[in-house]
Amino acid sequence: MLVPASSLLLFYRSPTQQQLTENHTSWIPLFLQAPSDIQGIETGTGKCTPRHNKPELTLSIIVLISIIVSYLPQYYRIFQKKSSDGLSLWFLILGSLSTTSSFFNIFVLQWGVVRCCSVIGPGPCTESILGITQLAVQFVMFNLIFILYMIYFPPNKKISTFLRHQLLHCRLFCLPTRSFTWTLSILASKVLLGYFFVSTAITVILLAAVGRGDISHDDGGGGNTRSRAWLLVWAGLLGIIAAFLAMIQYIPQIIETYLRKSMGALSIPMMLIQTPGAILITVSLALHPGANWTTWISYAITALLQIILLGFCLFYAYQIRKRRALRKKEEEQQQQQQEPLLLTRR
Question: Is residue 73 helix, strand or coil?
Answer without folding.
Answer: helix
